[in-house]
Amino acid sequence: MDDLFLSLRGIIEKDLKSTGFNPDPEPPSKEPRFPRNLSQMGTSEIKELYDDYMSWYEYLTDQLSQDQAFLTVAKARLDTVWAEATKRVVKNKEATNADLRKAFIQTDLEYMGANQDYIYFKSKLSVQVERRDKVKKSMDRIGRELWFRTQDDQPVEAPSYRRPTYRKV
Questions:
Q1: 3-state secondary structure string, the chain?
Q2: pLDDT of 163 strictly over 70
Q3: How much is the mean pLDDT over the chain?
Q4: Which pLDDT score is estimated for 154?
Q5: What residue ranges do the domains of the chain occupy?
Q6: Would the pTM of this model clear 0.85, i.e. be above it?
């Protein structure tokens, strides 16, 4: 049965690649860190930093998409193994109530393996979401800094007021 789900995972990877989805196998660089002195950095340095964050945002987004697909497969496997373990437990005369049946299922080796996969992908997905959110916040701040600088570079003009001219009739 595990082969069924592993082949499904392979099919998903293949189908995603056929749509043009081809995530980088490695990170684009060392994960960028937000500088403490952003307002003191040069504009070109900030633009370069923004590009680094953008590369990471793209990388993490692809990883999240892939992890979401794998989590779906792991959940389907977990549910199937639970059902199989339930069928085995019903035949066990020691499992006399719902709590014991649940305990037998949760300690079933095949179920524990499926649960481990599910927990792995669920945890990885959660971590990747947090990482992407952190990168997005940093990108937003860097973008605001660049925007503020463009506003500072523009000359401020005093408002002009025109007196209305009246025509004599």
A1: CHHHHHHHHHHHHHHHHHCCCCCCCCCCCCCCCCCCCHHHCCHHHHHHHHHHHHHHHHHHHHHHHHHHHHHHHHHHHHHHHHHHHHHHHHCCCCCCCHHHHHHHHHCCHHHHHHHHHHHHHHHHHHHHHHHHHHHHHHHHHHHHHHHHHHHHHCCCCCCCCCCCCCCCC
A2: no
A3: 86
A4: 63
A5: 42-148
A6: no
